[in-house]
Protein: Bax inhibitor-1/YccA family protein
Organism: Isoptericola haloaureus
Amino acid sequence: MSNPVFSNSDVFGEPRRTARGGTATSARPAQYGAYGAQAADAASLQNMYEAPSATPVDTKRLTYTDVIMKTGGLLALLVVVGAVSWQLTDTMPYLWIGGMIVGLVLGLVNAFKKNPSPVLITLYTVAQGLFLGGISAFYESAYDGIVGQAVLLTLCVFAAALGLYSSGKVRVTPKFTRFLLIGMVGYLLFSLVNVVLVWTGVLDGWGMRGGTLGIVIGLFAVVLAAMSLIMDFDFIKRGVEGGVPAKFAWSAAFGLIVTLIWLYLELLRLLAIMRGD
């Protein structure tokens, strides 16, 4: 017995007997076997040629739109939670400290995960919103209008970094990467030493970050944050061009959020130092 799929097919079916005992011809012309398959193949190839090319959305690959949408959503969440935390600072003064600790832990977890977790990245954003709302309220109470200035400067630095990278005037080269790495390690060590000296009472106020030196260090930190943004843009570009899966838009958005938070805090502290203790 032949395969029923083929036997019931007009193309592959067996010859059928007529009422007179003859052999009926196939429902398709006899020459179909010779030329029909070629015609069908030619038509299929023509349709494939004329069909629109598959987009990154069709193939579920990373796109700039994915990154923009997820980054915008996380930033909106950050602002909303920050505004709520700001209002609760007087009644719940330690809420922002808890947000700082939780945000630090979740930031490390997300940074070392091979595959992005939308839930953990969202929770990180919420925790950082609590932290930023509280610390921003603290700075604003000491220096009127400083938060608005820091936000505006953050946006300006972001736009400048994006413009320079998009124009090709600043490129991510091995030298660029080495300078950024060395600068960030050196800045981290300096900050840790300064915090220890202030906490132990060896230095007061801003410690080594006060006065002219503090302003120079603050400007250097802002430059490092801006360079980190350029690195983020380059990673995103390579991801899009390399066709990485669309889920990594969460990783790109997370990276941008981390750098923007760092930049905002550095500008907030720099403005406070410039305005005096």
Observations:
- The first helix runs from residue 4 to 7.
- The CA atoms of residues 59 and 224 lie 36 Å apart.
- The chain has one domain: 64-274.
